[in-house]
## 1
Amino acid sequence: MTTAKRDTYTPETLLSVAVQVFNQRGYDGTSMEHLSKAAGISKSSIYHHVSGKEELLRRAVSRALDGLFGILDEEHARVGRAADRLEHVVRRMVEVLISELPYVTLLLRVRGNTETERWALERRRDFDHQVAELLKAAAADGDIRGDVEVRLATRLVFGMINSIVEWYRPDTRGASGREVADAVARLAFSGLRRA
Amino acid sequence: MTTAKRDTYTPETLLSVAVQVFNQRGYDGTSMEHLSKAAGISKSSIYHHVSGKEELLRRAVSRALDGLFGILDEEHARVGRAADRLEHVVRRMVEVLISELPYVTLLLRVRGNTETERWALERRRDFDHQVAELLKAAAADGDIRGDVEVRLATRLVFGMINSIVEWYRPDTRGASGREVADAVARLAFSGLRRA
């Protein structure tokens, strides 16, 4: 667990510690006491920065959501054939997931017990919906196979991407974000079999 | 929550209730008290059937593991080109996951805090390893693309399959096990793009 010196504490480092604790104990199972211990600062020092743990949750999932929604504004997500835009979005989703791993992990584990969690779930559904629309457009163009229902295909591709949070560890000698993104794009669009 | 009449209680119905509670509360968060309440029978009646909650966990994950390992003994998993055997195994994994949904869900959520959980994780790793070996053999035959590392490909395909427990609900009007199995096999082996 990271601890930081009191005098160098910033909202950013506090957020980073909070996300670790949320991911480890679950958001529901985390108290201000746990956050105070993990951060190595008093509860009143935490309240100096934020109104409480729900604000930390909102900031953390916002960071993940901003990363994901930012993808949809990128030129390659807006211009070109739907199938190519979709491939760009899938590749970038993997990159954002890996570069913002603890934040996206937290986002994917949100349950909906508080207002902030329900807001996060709503935003996630909105994102998923926009990606599903891209898949639908690519199917209408005839670029995507017609024998797998769009909603099912979306779920399975998201399942493949989101599963990365379960095993990807940045500190192990393994594939880089770019390599995993290439692998996901190849499997999702062309499959395992050699053409 | 299912409740059953005391006089019709069998080890099978007790197991089915226990798995529901484990999946809802988490295995660690479930007490004999919770199981007794959910089953509508006394704790001593439960002890008449099993030695405790760990035995229920072992029986539940065994049912999932027996289903999965049973696939590897099927003729189409043993005879033929590795890529075709792999495709059979992937398709059947989806079918077993859906037919034994609560049991496989529990298996996938096992954390490793008790001996039974560690045993289950070990058996899961063994299964995953055997599927990875099949993928490796298919790559050696030249039937599987060479530009995605075998371990990474295995993880992503498992990620796609295992994600099904997060959204598949047997009671909603949706795809059948066979339809989901077809979709997974098509996406995993040939990808989204129209050839």
## 2
Amino acid sequence: MLYLIGLGLGDAKDITVKGLEVVKHCRRVYLEAYTSVLTVGKEALEEFYGRELILADRETVEQKADNILKDADLCDVAFLVVGDPFGATTHSDLVLRAVKLGIPYRVIHNASIMNAVGCCGLQLYNFGETVSVVFWTDTWKPESFFDKIQKNKQNGMHTLCLLDIKVKEQSLENLMKGKKIYESPRYMSVNQAAEQLLAIVQNRRLQGEEPEVTENTHCVGLARVGAMDQKIASGTLQQMSTVELGGPLHSMIIAGNMHPLEIDMLKLFAVDKSSFEDNECQRNT
Amino acid sequence: MLYLIGLGLGDAKDITVKGLEVVKHCRRVYLEAYTSVLTVGKEALEEFYGRELILADRETVEQKADNILKDADLCDVAFLVVGDPFGATTHSDLVLRAVKLGIPYRVIHNASIMNAVGCCGLQLYNFGETVSVVFWTDTWKPESFFDKIQKNKQNGMHTLCLLDIKVKEQSLENLMKGKKIYESPRYMSVNQAAEQLLAIVQNRRLQGEEPEVTENTHCVGLARVGAMDQKIASGTLQQMSTVELGGPLHSMIIAGNMHPLEIDMLKLFAVDKSSFEDNECQRNT
């Protein structure tokens, strides 16, 4: 049996009781290690589980999946994923390959960023399409996510922005030389995401547009959701560009229309409560 | 401290290790018992936790919240919610009341139906607004959720349909007589939801519309997600009206545009694989 097990979002103890039992009895246990991170590392998990984990980077999962699935028809193998196995990143590929090989599988769910962001008070059923905000480079500054955010906002929906993670990336130089030397991991902060969005707002104005999303649009910045030291800040997009949220992982929400109860919740986390008394917020209620 | 603790979706062992530790040490532990159900009952939870739980029905949570929060500034109180405390139903009211009383709170997240439906292979970031499908009565047959589904579909998005739950409902007669006699709980099945949707499709045609959602639209029926006996079936809306999924809780997804990987996953659960080779599916890829 292949078990896909969600680890939740905070630390080692966020695994479910059922998930922990399975981890303890499996022959091999892999830890998916390229789409997200816990606030604790592999060693802390190994100590808590009392067993060794095998790190599975992108290459292993995408190109050597058969290693993971080896003998999984005869013994139990676990594949651990931060959050939920079908959350922000789905592991459909691995499931489809297992099924093709006649290996049964089971999913042990957990919280993922896709549902845990509800803790800010914005209601999950009022979210539209989720977008990914990628790190811009000197030569590549995609804006397509902005159009999706605007479309959601026009429909009154909130937008969850998943912020870029660069793990085990090679520099162009090392890539071309075929050197497997990796850059330090980089995690996009709410500040960086807000700055990119503000730049797009300016671009659109230069192009004669009047964007729906502006520096005054209500947003929520979230850091380390589910961890003991999680931080939530609500305010305008402009405020998000300077708010201090600490270490990774960060996510950001661009609010659509808000119910009074949602506004009351966001006020708990307001950078500046007066921003919830302006015209835009009133109009949105 | 007030702890809001998600129990996940299946049975007693779906609580997180952290959640279980908190449950064991709290002075009082409430079980929210009107918006969802686990496949196990209160007694099974009490046995697993080794302690007594206090059932909190809608009346207790909405009108007697101060009882729940009593002394929570001096001792620890837990409020258990099936799924996640900020999932399909948010408990913002309780949080706001706690904050007003100066009581600190903490959320221990878990899987909710809002993210666990990802197990069918449709990607969570491609979902639009979530809708609730309510039981029709002889005199009340709302159709507004259908317009939301159509809007999502026009935008290429999937729609999660949360299906009605009637717990502790009084008949009109008993309500008028002031008798606190409650009807048996009712949980809407995928069959019932599909039948209501098919009726709306017919209504719209009678009104001269050509609805975007038809009997041939791809759907997913899900039952007891996260439990050992969960069932998933994919097929047309017409097929959903007769598919056998067993006991509650059920949810349904109306698919929008599908990525080839999403189609491959849905084929695993197909009532009839040939339905994935028709024109609509090809057009959607």
